[in-house]
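Project outcomes to date are best conveyed with an example. Our students and postdoctoral researchers have been running inverse folding experiments weekly, and each run begins with a structure described purely in C-alpha cells. The record below, which covers 337 residues, was selected by the lab manager from last quarter's runs and is presented without edits.
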C-alpha cells in the first residue's frame, strides 16, 4: 500500500498543478457570485436560493473534475513514457491503478472543500444581511462577537489563510517544508480544516442551511468516488476523448435513473420501457447523492442523518470498488508495448 500511496501523492501533485483545475475552480467561484446575485433577486428566500445554487455548482463541477482527471490518468503517463519507468520498478499494475484513482479522489475532495468553504463564507454575509433586512439588528460582526466558537473559528480562518498565503508567496527556505506539505497530504487536510472552521462560523448564523451544505458536500464526495472509478475503468482501455464522452454519458444516465424507474410514459413501447428500467437497475443511482430538503427533513437529528449518509456511502463504495477492480483487471491485460 505504500507504493499505491506514493503514486496517489504524485498524481495529486500533478493534478493540483493543472491549469484546467484552476480554471474550473475559478468557474465555481464565479458561479457562486452569480448565485449571490440570484439570491438578492428573490423576495424572502435569499439564503435558500444561494444554498441550492451553490450545492448544484459543487455537485456538477466536482464530477466534471473527476471525469477530466480520470480520462487522462493513463494517456499522459503513456505519452510522457513515465509509465514504463514506474512499471519497471516493483510496482504492480493494480497498485498503479489504485494510486491514480486515490489521487483523483483526493483532488476532487480538495475542490469540494474549497468551494464549500467559499459557499459557507458567502452564506454568513447573506444570512446576516437577510436577518437585518427582516428587522433583526444583526450584522456579521455582531454575530461573530456573540459566539465564542464563531470568534475562535473566524480567528483561525484568518490565521490559516495568512499562513497559507505567506507559505505560497514567500521564497524563504524556512517555509520550504510547509510548501512541500501544501503540495501533498497537507493540502487535503488543510482544505478540510478550512471548510470546518468556516462552517463553525456559518452555523452560528444559519445552522440548518450549514448542515444541509455539509451533508450535501459529504454525499458529493461519495458520488465523486463513483464517477472517478467509472472514468478510471473506461480509461483503462480507451482514449481520453472516448473516456470523457462515455464517462459523462454514464454520469448523466446515473443522474437520470431515479426518473427512469418512475417513468410511466404510454408513448414508449413496453420493451423499451423494460430495457430502460434494466439499465437503471444496473447503473448506480447517482440521483440519491443530490438530497432534497424534504429527504433530509424526514431524517431529523444527528443519528438518522448519519445513518442516511452511511447507507449511501456503503452503496457508493461498493460500486467504486467494483469499477476500480475492473479497471485493474483490464489494465493488467493491456499490452503496453
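After processing, the design step wrote out the following sequence:
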Amino acid at each position: 500500500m505504500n507504493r499505491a500511496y506514493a503514486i496517489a501523492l504524485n498524481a495529486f501533485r500533478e493534478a493540483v498543478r493543472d491549469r484546467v483545475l484552476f480554471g474550473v475552480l475559478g468557474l465555481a467561484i464565479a458561479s457562486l457570485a452569480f448565485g449571490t446575485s440570484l439570491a438578492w433577486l428573490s423576495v424572502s428566500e435569499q439564503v435558500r436560493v444561494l444554498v441550492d445554487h451553490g450545492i448544484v455548482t459543487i455537485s456538477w463541477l466536482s464530477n466534471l473534475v473527476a471525469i477530466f482527471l480520470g480520462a487522462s490518468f493513463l494517456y499522459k503517463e503513456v505519452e510522457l513514457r513515465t509509465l514504463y519507468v514506474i512499471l519497471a520498478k516493483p510496482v504492480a499494475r493494480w497498485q498503479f491503478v489504485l494510486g491514480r484513482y486515490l489521487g483523483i479522489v483526493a483532488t476532487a475532495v480538495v475542490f469540494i472543500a474549497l468551494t464549500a468553504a467559499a459557499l459557507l463564507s458567502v452564506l454568513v454575509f447573506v444570512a446576516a444581511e437577510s436577518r437585518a433586512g427582516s428587522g433583526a439588528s444583526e450584522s456579521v460582526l455582531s454575530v461573530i462577537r456573540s459566539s465564542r466558537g464563531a470568534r475562535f473559528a473566524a480567528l483561525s480562518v484568518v490565521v490559516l489563510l495568512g499562513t497559507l498565503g505567506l507559505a505560497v508567496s514567500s521564497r524563504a527556505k524556512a517555509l520550504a517544508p510547509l510548501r512541500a506539505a501544501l503540495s501533498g497530504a497537507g493540502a487535503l487536510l488543510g482544505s478540510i480544516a478550512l471548510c470546518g472552521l468556516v462552517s463553525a462560523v456559518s452555523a452560528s448564523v444559519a445552522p440548518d442551511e450549514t448542515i444541509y451544505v455539509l451533508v450535501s458536500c459529504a454525499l458529493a464526495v461519495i458520488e465523486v468516488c463513483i464517477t472517478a472509478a467509472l472514468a478510471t475503468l473506461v480509461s483503462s482501455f480507451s482514449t481520453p476523448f472516448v473516456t470523457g464522452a462515455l464517462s459523462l454519458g454514464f454520469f448523466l444516465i446515473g443522474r437520470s435513473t431515479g426518473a427512469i424507474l418512475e417513468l410511466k410514459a404510454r408513448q414508449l413501447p413496453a420493451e423499451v420501457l423494460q430495457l430502460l428500467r434494466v439499465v437503471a437497475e444496473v447503473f448506480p443511482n447517482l440521483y440519491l447523492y443530490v438530497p432534497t430538503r424534504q429527504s433530509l427533513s424526514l431524517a431529523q437529528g444527528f443519528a438518522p442523518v448519519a445513518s442516511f449518509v452511511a447507507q449511501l456511502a456503503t452503496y457508493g463504495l461498493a460500486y467504486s470498488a467494483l469499477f476500480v477492480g475492473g479497471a485493474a483487471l483490464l489494465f493488467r491485460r493491456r499490452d503496453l508495448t
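The chain has a mean pLDDT of 77. The chain has 15 helices and no strands. The training component of this project remains on track.
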